[in-house]
Sequence to fold (165 residues):
Amino acid sequence: MGEKQKRYVEAYSRISTSISSGHYFEAITIEESIISDRLASFLEATDSLKSDDIHRQGFASLVTLWKLATKNPGSIWENCDSLIAQVDSWRKERNKYVHGLVKFPNQKANVPTTEDFINGAKKTANDGAKLAKEVSEWRKRQAQVKRKHNMALKGTSAGSPAAAP
Fold:
């Protein structure tokens, strides 16, 4: 098992233990890290941007670039509009909980109780765990799509019958 795979095993283990022990903010942060890494990996495979530029993008930018890459005319990528929408919605919830523990809105009437806030963080952590797995699975499928596409291109460029007029 390579180091990256070991890190992913550790990350998923920490998500589970964090949620079960009530450390929802840790789980949310690890989930964002996984999703961001999978999106960056996908975007590298699309040759959308230079690798260095991809890894400097924030979470919101990665989601936007993901949406653009899958909507390009002639795109070979699996449709994932629903998954993108879920991740973007979760990203907004993630921001609310990661940044909101001690930040209060100007309108005091809109301040949730601490118990409600923690329950929201718990839901966001559980939702993020599912999304991290879904995005990882989607990314694996796209790697297969690219391999098949590249093999088909090699077959047609090598003078196979598919390349004949």
Summary: The helical segments are 3-20, 24-46, 51-54, 59-71, 81-100, 114-157. DSSP finds six helices and no strands in the chain. The chain has a mean pLDDT of 89. Residues 35 and 135 are 6 Å apart (CA to CA).
